[in-house]
Design a protein that fits this description.
Blueprint (H helix, E strand, L loop, with lengths): L1 E12 L2 E7 L2 E3 L3 E5 L6 H8 L9 E9 L2 E2 L6 H7 E4 L10 H11 L5 H14 L3 H4 L12 H13 L5 E5 L7 H17 L1 E5 L3 H7 L2 E6 L2 E7 H6 L4 H7 L5
Parallel strand pairs: 4-9, 4-10, 7-8, 8-9
Antiparallel strand pairs: 1-2, 1-3, 1-5, 5-6, 10-11
Helix pairs in contact: 3-4, 3-6, 4-6, 6-7
Bound molecules: adenosine-5'-triphosphate and magnesium ion.
Amino acid sequence: MDIIKTKDLNLFYGENHALKNINLDIKKNSVTALIGPSGCGKSTFLRTINRMNDLIDNVKITGNIFCEGKDVYTEYDVIDLRKKIGMVFQKPNPFPMSIYDNIAYGPRIHGIKDKRTLDEIVEKSLKGAVLWEEVKDRLKKSAMGLSGGQQQRLCIARTLAVEPEVILMDEPTSALDPISTLKIEELMDVLKKKYTVIIVTHNMQQAGRIADETAFFLVGEIVESGKTEDLFYKPRDKRTEDYITGRFG
Ligand SMILES: Nc1ncnc2c1ncn2[C@@H]1O[C@H](COP(=O)(O)OP(=O)(O)OP(=O)(O)O)[C@@H](O)[C@H]1O
Ligand SMILES: [Mg+2]
């Protein structure tokens, strides 16, 4: 089943036509990688899915994005939408507060006040992001004291705490060392059993390791999308082949 569907999606930053006729459907409980050279619209597309572009001036969007059959731009309240579709950024961005409060932040905004319930959410989310064992004895300590890789897993746990359906990740491992990267990659396999993950990555090996589906972006268009192994080993388009074999980009 497709949880996200896009239909003839176009996005303009002023005169700059940054997304051109995107028609990409995302399967539920899968990991989809978005690849392509710098400046070709991957982050723009990702942000369009949970309306993070709403905050940017001069953006015009045509076409549709549907999440579970409902139009993201006309049939959702943006707060509800971002609860359903969470986001993890390239640079870990923990809030300057305790580990516990970072995770409890979202649920509190959504009205959960009971301490026992919050305790449970914090533990479950940290376990879900495979961070619990490392931090369970220092939950009241500042999140800023965690390593970069731990901070990124904390940000994933923070996203999990509001029980999203879809998690958007924009180059979540590009600021991390190889061991932390491996931990996040392993986490993907666990996460997709419950969630749908869409991840931007510049690392082809990473896309090959973690993604079920891959979409190749080039100057605002999707050149090709489909099963990751097909895209890597039997690309239909010469431009895809050139990109994945490192001939450009
Ligand atoms: N906030 C913005 N305002 C105006 N133009 C923007 C904005 N963000 C991105 N763009 C433009 O939109 C195009 C696509 O940018 P985008 O950031 O989506 O690319 P990307 O594929 O994520 O690149 P990278 O791999 O370098 O992160 C570029 O031409 C970029 O300059
Ligand atoms: Mg980007």
